[in-house]
Amino acid sequence: MENFFLTRLTRRAFMEKTAKACMKTGLSLFFLKGSFAMASEADEIPASGSNEKKFSVAEPGYLRLHRSGELSERAAALESLMKECRLCPRQCGADRIGGGKGFCQAPGMLPVIASASPHFGEERPLVGRGGSGTIFFSHCNLRCVFCQNWEISHAGRGRGQSYENLADRMLAMQRAGCHNINLVTPTHYSAAILRALDLAAEKGLRLPLVYNTSGWERMEVLSLLDGAVDIYLPDFKFKDSSVSSEYAAGAGSYGEITASAILEMHRQVGTALPESDGIMKKGLMIRHLVMPGHTKDSVKIIEWIARNLPENTYVNIMAQYNPAYRAFDHPEIARRISTEEYRDVVRAAEKAGLVNLDVRGSWWLR
């Protein structure tokens, strides 16, 4: 096991490494119980027998679909879209059921997973004290040139998993005290996710489901996720079609499709408001990454949100852009953003009347 006690770590990095180590050794509850990394008693896993714990909030929506058998039917409907793949707006037509690779490079039907562990780097209402149970899926349909996770999204680093293994990973993170199951880049594996979710629900999964997506989603797919997803966490990366075409492999439709998708997500789950403990259980949370030289496009996105969604919509304005992967092939984005660029976007959001902004300090930007 990695001896991380001999390495200088931030508090967040220490908690992530500790949680991973505990999960590997099966000591998660023993090690974390009573610590600041453990979920509250109300969030503990209901155990079989007389010592059952009850959750303090309404149960996740997917449990109703599981009990009625509809969750399995939804999975089958998503699988039917994979014969000539139409899971994402590219609609590349690959025979995923027959083992073919789509534009996203996902091979066949079974999910490929890069990692699954408690994660402490997500939004605070998702992380809480126990972390967000984050599953990073390999491959991606958007394929941005500046992707910071390109080893996973472009190169496909990860291992294929059965539905049973994916379900077991969800349950392991529940036992570790995570507040939710956070599915990162899930679109091209949405059928497999519902299959695994059905199995996990049967075995006692009770955590909210977070759909952590690029935002570029088809309405047909979103309709099949209605009631299964508790928290939608979409990016809204680009508004201008020329920008998305340049940086996202010709995805000129990104802005228009993502705007429609976000409206549908809001219709399904509503505005995200934290519970009394500060943890988010349901709703829409939007991310926007400010990019160098493109604050005008950022302002368009902010103004669209203000016009079309409630003023208390959760919007995370992110400052952590870092030129990665093939960003240096595009000189205009081959740098960090400046303090002024970030502040301009924040000011635009405040001027537009948005009141639930997740804004980070920009003192470290140049």
From TrEMBL:
MF-aspect GO terms: iron-sulfur cluster binding; lyase activity; metal ion binding
Cofactor(s), by name: [4Fe-4S] cluster
Signal peptide span: none
Keywords linked to the UniProt accession: Iron, Iron-sulfur, Lyase, Metal-binding, Pyruvate, S-adenosyl-L-methionine
The Radical SAM core domain, residue ranges: 135-227
Record carries keyword Ion transport: no
PANTHER family: FORMATE LYASE ACTIVATING ENZYME, PUTATIVE (AFU_ORTHOLOGUE AFUA_2G15630)-RELATED
Name of the molecule in the record: Putative pyruvate formate lyase activating enzyme
UniProt source species: Desulfobotulus alkaliphilus
